[in-house]
Amino acid sequence: MLVSKCKHFDAVDNLGNNILHYACIFNNEPIVESLLKRNTSSSFVEAVNKENRTPLDIARKNQMSPSIIDILFSLSGRL
Predict the structure, then answer these.
(1) Per its UniProt record, what InterPro entries does this chain match (predicted)?
(2) For the chain, what is the largest distance between any 2 Cα atoms, rounded to a whole number of angstroms?
(3) What distance in Å separates the CA atoms of residue 32 and residue 72, rounded to the nearest whole number?
(4) Mean pLDDT, rounded, for 56-65
(5) What is the DSSP string of 4-27?
(6) In this structure, what CATH number is given to the domain that contains residue 13?
(7) Residue 3 included in any domain
(8) Within-domain flag for 71
(9) Domain count of the chain?
(10) Average pLDDT, integer, range 13-33
């Protein structure tokens, strides 16, 4: 799987989104779960894009499953 080959979890695009932002944008729960098994650092989970949104903010907006939101919340501690 591509996620297992990922070495640069902190890489961001010109919008400030990292790979976790995109997994949440595209509502891809298996990828979110896989990413969080490999990296739970606060700089990854709490990364803020240029719209001032974290992956948790995006997951909430896209109404991802409560289990994904709970995991992101527990790792970030944001309300």
Answers:
(1) Ankyrin_rpt, Ankyrin_rpt-contain_sf
(2) 32
(3) 9
(4) 96
(5) HH---TT---TTS--HHHHHHHTT
(6) 1.25.40.20
(7) no
(8) yes
(9) 1
(10) 96
36-45 tens-digit pLDDT? 999 899 899 9
Q: Is residue 43 part of a domain?
A: yes
Answer yes or no: are the C-beta atoms of 3 and 31 closer than 8 Å.
yes
CA distance 29 to 2: 15
**Stated pTM of the model:** 0.87
- Could you tell me if residue 66 is inside a domain? yes
The token duo for 18 is 């990292």
Query: Rounded to an integer, what distance in angstroms lies between the CA atom of residue 4 and that of residue 57?
Result: 25
Token pair 């894009």 is found at 49
Closest CA to 10 of 21, 25, 1, 2: 21
- Going by C-alpha positions, the residue among 51, 78, 61 that lies closest to residue 26 is 61
Q: What is the DSSP letter of 62?
A: T
* Domain membership of residue 21 as a residue range: 9-76
Cα–Cα distance measured from residue 58 to residue 17, given in angstroms and rounded to the nearest whole number: 11
